Structure formats: C-alpha cells, structure tokens
Amino acid sequence: MPVIRTPKAHRTIGEPFEGQRLRTEVREIAKAHQGKDLELRNAVVAYLKGAMQQARAEAERLLKEDGCGRCCAMRLSAFQDAMIASAYEVATTILYPADNPSRSERMAISAVGGYGRGMLAPGSDTDILFVLPYKQTAWGESVAEAILYILWDLGLKVGHATRSVDECLRQARADFTIRTSILEARFLAGDKALFHDLEVRFDKEVVEGTAAEFVAAKMAEREERLRRAGQSRYLVEPNVKDSKGGLRDLHTLFWIAKYVYRVQTTSQLVAKDVFTREEARLFTRCEDFLWSVRCHLHFLTGRAEDRLSFDVQREMAQRLGYTEHPGQKDVERFMKHYFLVAKDVGDLTAILSAALEEHQAKPVPGLRGMVERLRPGHHRKAPLKDSPDFILDHDRLNVADAEAFKRDPVNLIRIFHVADKRNLALHPDAMRLMARSLPLIDAKLRDSLEANRLFLEVLASRNAPETVLRRMNEAGVLGRFLPEFGKIVAMMQFNMYHHYTVDEHLLRCIGILSEIEHKSNPENGLANELMASVKNRNMVYVAMLLHDIAKGRPEDHSTAGARIARRLCPRLGMTPVETETVAWLVEQHLVMSTVAQSRDLSDRKTIENFAAVVQSLERLKLLTIITTADIRAVGPGTWNSWKAQLLRTLYYETEPVLTGGFSEVDRGKRVIAAQGQLRHALTDWPAEKVETYLARHYPSYWLRLDLEAKLRHARFIDATEAAGESIATQITMEPGRGVTALTVLAPDHPKLLSIIAGACAAAGANIMDAHISTTTDGLALDTIAIRRAFERDDDEERRAGRVREAVEQALKGEVRLPEVMARKLPKGRRTFSLEPEVTVNNSWSNRHTVVEVSGLDRPGLLFALTNTLSRLNLNIASAHVATFGERAVDVFYVTDLMGAKITGAARQSAIRRALVAVFEGAMDDEDAPRRAARA
C-alpha cells in the first residue's frame, strides 16, 4: 500500500502566493483605486480570484507530488489566512480608516471551527468570528461587511458571527457548539490584544472546572452523529468526515484532550502520559491519511463531497497510487487501508477514554453500553481468584501487571475467555498491552491445545460471542491467532451488495447465529426451529466464521475456504467427520441461497439436484441456518419474509427426498395446511366462495408465500373481479425491505412480464425482485418489488401511483414501450463493470430449458432480456429475478413455441449471443435478435 508521506518541511502555499507578497500586491491594487470603492473592490476580488485558482492548483499539484494531506490542508488554510488579512487591511486602511480610533473601534478576526485548526479542505466552509471589545459600532459593522462582501464575491462559503468578548463567553457557557468553536479559535488579523483577552477569559471563566460536562456533551454529540452516519466504521461507502473512525472522531478526540489537559498540540499529550510517542505519531499518521483522502476527494469532485461513494472510489485509489494485486483490485486495497486507519482511530479513542477515566471525566463503558458516571474515589481494583493474571479495574477486565502476556502467552486468548464467562468489558490498558504483545502469538501458541480450546469456547459461546470476537479483532489478536482471518481484516468488496467489510460481515454472522440459537428474533424463520435440533453446534459456529475467510484470493473463495477449514478444524480439536462437514458447509454455503432465489422450487428436478448436493438431513439443517445468517448479515433490508419463505419451501421440498419419502410435514399436508390458514382468515367469505378461490392456485403458490401475502392477493383478486376489470394493479409499502411491491393481475400471455418490466423502467422504477404466479384459470398474478425512492410513505405512494399508471397503460396497449424507453432511460458512465454470463441448461428441469443470465444491472434490463427472449420465439414459463447490489441474476424457464426444450446447439448458441448483446447495448431495434442468431 502507498505510504502517505509527511515531509519534514514544506512550502505553505507555494510561489508566487506567500502571504506577505499577496498582501503587498492587494495593497498596491487598492491604492491605485482609492476613492472609487466599487472599482477598488472589483479589482481586489479579480486579483484574489486568480490568485486563489493558482494557489489551489498548486496545492493539488503538491498533494499529488508529496502525498501529504495535512500539508495540503495547511497550505489552503494559510492562503485563506492571507486573503482575509488582505481584505481586513483594505477595509481598515483604505475603505474605512479610523484616523482617531476610540477604544470601541477595535476588532480581531479569528478563524473558528475546522478553519481554526489551521487546516482547510478545498471545498470547506470558511468560519470566522469578528471579536469586538464592546457592542457593535458603525465602524465595526462597515469593516465586517466590506470583508464579507469580498469573500462572498470570491465564491467562498463563509460562516460568520460578530460578538463582543462578553457575548462570546456568555454564549459559550450555554452552547457547547459555540464553546468548541472558540476552543479552536485562531487569530487572523486585527487587534491581537483583544483576541488574547478572549483566550484568557475563555480559559478561566468557561473551561476551568467544566471538563466533565464538556466531555459528556461531546460524547453524546458523537453518538448522535454516528447514529445518523451509521454505527459501524466498516460501512463500504464511508463518510471521511463524519463516519466512525473519520476525521470528526479525531477532532473530537483532540477537542476533549485540549479541554481536559489544556494542551495545544498532540505531542503535548505524550508529556501528560496520555499517549506514548508511537501513539502520538499514529494520531498524526491517521490525520494525514484522512486529510489526504478528503482533499483528493474535494479536488476530484469539485465540491465539498466527503462521502467515499462507489462512483469515486476507483478514481480515488488511482489518485492515491494504489495498484491491483492478484485477487484484489486497486480500489479494494485503497479501501482496506482506509478501514485500517479507521480502526486505528478507534484504538486512539479507547486510549484517551482510559486516560479520562483516571481524570474522572467520562462515563465508564460496559460490555453492552454506557453505565454510571465515575464517582470520586471509585478506583476499585480487585484480583480474580481463579485467574491471578487478571484484575477487575473500574468494573472491567485488566491485566495484573505488564508481564501477564509475556509470562503466559495463552493469556492473550484466556483474557477474552474470562471476559465472555464473566460478562466483562476489557479495559483499554489491557487492549493497549495486547497490541504491543502481538509478536507473542506465534506457531507455538497457535498449536497450543489450551489456547485452541479457549478460542473455540469463545467462538461458540452461549453468551455474546460477537461482542468478544469483535474486541479480539480490534486488539489484533484474532488476525494473529488465525492468520487467514488476518488477511481479510478491513477488506472491502467493490460491489453494491455487501454493506460491510469481510471481517465485519463474518462477525455480524456470528452475532446473528447467536440470535438464532436464542430464538430472540422471529424474522429468522425456520432457522430458529432447526438450531435446537442440530447435533453439533460448534460446527455451525466454526463454519460461519470461515465461510468467507478466503475472499480476496484469485481462486473461488468457497473452494479455497474449504481447504482452509480442513487445515484449521483439527487445530481446534475437531474430529475428521466434523472437519469434513465444516469444509463442506464452507464450500457449499452459497448453494441454498442460489437455488431458493433463482430456481423453480415447484420443479421436481430442482429439488432432486439440490438434494444430490446436500445428501443428508443434518447437512440440510446446518446449511439452512448458515444461509439465513449469511443473508441477514449482508446489510439492512437484504433479508425479508419473501426470502425466509423461499428457504422454508426449499427445505420442506428437499426433506422428504433425503429421508426416503418420509417427512414430518410432507408437501401435500403443507399445501392443505396453507389453504386452511387462508380459509380460517377469510371469515367474511361464504364457504363455497372460499373453496372456489382455493382451487384457482397451483400447489407451488401455497408453498412460496406467507399468509399475509395470500390474504392480500385473495382480496385484491376478488375486488378486481367485482369491479368487472380484467387488468388491475395494487401497491404495498414495505419500508423495512426498502422496496415497494407492485402486484399485477392480468390475463396471462408470453410478453406479459416483458411489458410490466418495460413500463416500470420507463416510469423510473428499478426492479429488485419478482414473483411470478399463474392461476388455473389463466390469470397472471405477478408481484414486482421495486426499489423505494422516498423515505416518506406519502411521497413514495405518489411515485408508486405513477408506476401503476404506466404499467396499466402499457398492458392496455395505450403506449409504445420501445419509444418511451428510448426517450426516458438514463444514459451515462457506469461505476461497475461485470462480464455478462449466460448459461443455457437442460439438466436443471425435466420440462424446461433453464436460461440463467448474470451481469451488470441497469434500468430496463429485465425488459430488454424478456423482450429478447420473446423475439427469439421462446415461451417464458416462469422467471426468477434477483438483484445482488449491481449484479442482476435472472433465471428463465423457457420452451419453444411447441412447448419443447431447446436442444439444438446452434439455437442455444444464438440465445447466448442475443442475451450477451443485451448487456453490450446492442438490442435497440427489432432485428437485433435475428442478427445475433445469424452471427
């Protein structure tokens, strides 16, 4: 990874715009236009604007040259200082000179907020405070106004306030935001004695004796910020400024340190025994890296953009000098470095927290949250009877002395075991010592029977395994004890499907697995029922931890992960049979999700093929549990009742095949039970009407949907037929999934799905999923999940209404879809690139040819695919539509127009070419499929 260098010396703003020269030039320009205020201001602004453009270009050039983010921010800040000082000089010596100034005609201009730190990003606001000795005067008002007009004319975003010293102090006492801005105030121009008076009085009258309340306010402010930005520091599109582990966390750290310890620089915290020299250097390195990223991001986007979104990450990686390695893209290496820095920021936060506790200025964090505030004299330290190397320190687990790990390296694992058993948080001092003791984790410790026994008990704990493993990961112990895990720490995958880094995903999987075992969340569905009957729970936890451990390698991660499992499981004390089962689960951990979401579960061949892979009922149980946890841990909104029902259906369809035809709940009984549930719910319908309705659906319908959806469909169909309509649509809001469900009832015909997909795309709706059903009397009942566009339900309902109208118009033939889509579909640069894959397979179904299409998703893709299949004279019997981030995986069960499979090699090749051409944008006219077929 590139090293962000910090030069020992650097030019502040670069020739030819040093501060003194800039002020001299502005002074000469102002004198030349003296007496003509408007011309003077225009001339000064024109000069400063050109100077600013050159200075920023020079700052960007130097940033690319030396890679020093802090230097870039300081250069930009210094240039801003020079401009404001020049504007002040023009205002006070030429525009509004005070020939015989009174004591009230004095002013000090100070930089506050982020600008007060002397570092500024290219798109940052310029926050300044005009300090007055008493109340505002006409002179002070004129000077401030003149300076502000110059800065506004330069196009700067200026945050400003004008206050007397007394006002500053009064407002700082009442408002912690103002208090923080004054804490960072830095003199720019004017009366230095006046600014010094503010500094001295602020320290004495506001800061002194209020450290505890300031720390509490800043920590509460941080919690609220992280709640808005996302609590995890491992979100794959982080905000460089506001996300956990970002610049704002570093700033909060320094605000607190400055306030509590009365220091001006990070290095002074070493003298106060808060940081070691290495930790102080780490603070500077983190700050430098984050400033480098932020400045590059502002230069790249041309605005104050602090979010590292997918569409800029690749270019950012290239600007910062990252290169591609086997198995890892340049952008993934850049983001891994980013997350490692974010982790270092978290470590520094913990170190400062420990120091503050000794100062009695901060609440003590427990294992699961914040508890009572420290009281004077509350410094209880008690040894643990059964673990003499550890003590209780402020109700948290700490080491008895600095030699605890060196004396017995197994203690590096044992401390987490004790923390888990006793439900204790780990003291930051212990975490700090662990970080320095990582070299003790060597081959001998990794092979230790005791260490591996303790680790397995932590991993499969019935208490809070995710919490303890997370601490183990933060300390660096987990990655050293399991080197394979160390390789995926902070590793991101450059796609829209995964919300977290690989290690964060695995830890969340363990947390959800524990949740399944405790049956604390009914959303886990069938997995909750199965976990209690699993014969060996340790195997589930080990497989869960290892299922993605081989990500980032050139080969398939499932295959490589199985190989790692076969090597690691014996080390953890597992038998050969257990080892082979774990390896199989790792190798096949994606198969159940793939089959459930992209295959026709009513097709007997699908179930037989899946059963052939699974081979035993116990493996089926384990795979169901792991699949549930894996999907749920991907990110918010990924898991839903639809997917839960698909997994349940696949499980119960496969179970009798694996048990030789015997099942506690066989297919027929489950259909009857599902019909009975609906019969019981439709109490307001006559019995005869209910029985007629039940006969309208095939068995597969009853097994794929939950009761709520079936009840909604029944009332929807009944209302449509009562109104005498042949075509109808219905909208269902599902904010928890982040989608809106559009249900369409219409006479079935081969192009129906294509028309619905095209109308949705033309209306700007992005299809995320689709459930296709046909009734026994020839009606199609299709439910399309479209990505939600608005947070507020009323806004989303209005937008969904437009989508409904578009679909109904298209189905009634009132619009020509190709023309509408050509006009409305967006065109532009794509952030991701994926090689399209098309598989035409006759072994996955006894009655149909299965066409699986995978590639980069885009608006209108489903319409283009289904339209192409129709033009190729293929009949779509069923479709299974799924989106995994930017990747669309669509599976179509097709026949020719005579109802036969597609067996000819030439015809299959033509289908592949035509569908690949859709992704390449070649399907814009009616003759394109025929041209592809002839190719």
From TrEMBL:
Regulation of activity: Uridylyltransferase (UTase) activity is inhibited by glutamine, while glutamine activates uridylyl-removing (UR) activity.
Domain ACT stretches: 741-823, 850-930
Domain of life: Bacteria
Catalytic activity: [protein-PII]-uridylyl-L-tyrosine + H2O = [protein-PII]-L-tyrosine + UMP + H(+); [protein-PII]-L-tyrosine + UTP = [protein-PII]-uridylyl-L-tyrosine + diphosphate
InterPro entries: ACT-like_dom_sf (IPR045865), ACT_dom (IPR002912), HD/PDEase_dom (IPR003607), HD_domain (IPR006674), NT_sf (IPR043519), PII_UdlTrfase/GS_AdlTrfase (IPR013546), UTase/UR (IPR010043)
Pfam families per UniProt: ACT, GlnD_UR_UTase, HD
UniProt domain HD: residue ranges: 502-623
GO molecular function: [protein-PII] uridylyltransferase activity
Record keywords: Hydrolase, Magnesium, Multifunctional enzyme, Nucleotidyltransferase, Repeat, Transferase
Presence of the UniProt keyword Repeat in the record: yes
UniProt EC number: 2.7.7.59, 3.1.4.-
Region (Uridylyltransferase): 1-383
Entry cofactors: Mg(2+)
Domain-level remarks: Has four distinct domains: an N-terminal nucleotidyltransferase (NT) domain responsible for UTase activity, a central HD domain that encodes UR activity, and two C-terminal ACT domains that seem to have a role in glutamine sensing.
Recorded family membership: Belongs to the GlnD family.
PANTHER family for this protein: BIFUNCTIONAL URIDYLYLTRANSFERASE/URIDYLYL-REMOVING ENZYME, BIFUNCTIONAL URIDYLYLTRANSFERASE_URIDYLYL-REMOVING ENZYME
Function noted in UniProt: Modifies, by uridylylation and deuridylylation, the PII regulatory proteins (GlnB and homologs), in response to the nitrogen status of the cell that GlnD senses through the glutamine level. Under low glutamine levels, catalyzes the conversion of the PII proteins and UTP to PII-UMP and PPi, while under higher glutamine levels, GlnD hydrolyzes PII-UMP to PII and UMP (deuridylylation). Thus, controls uridylylation state and activity of the PII proteins, and plays an important role in the regulation of nitrogen metabolism.
Name of this protein: Bifunctional uridylyltransferase/uridylyl-removing enzyme
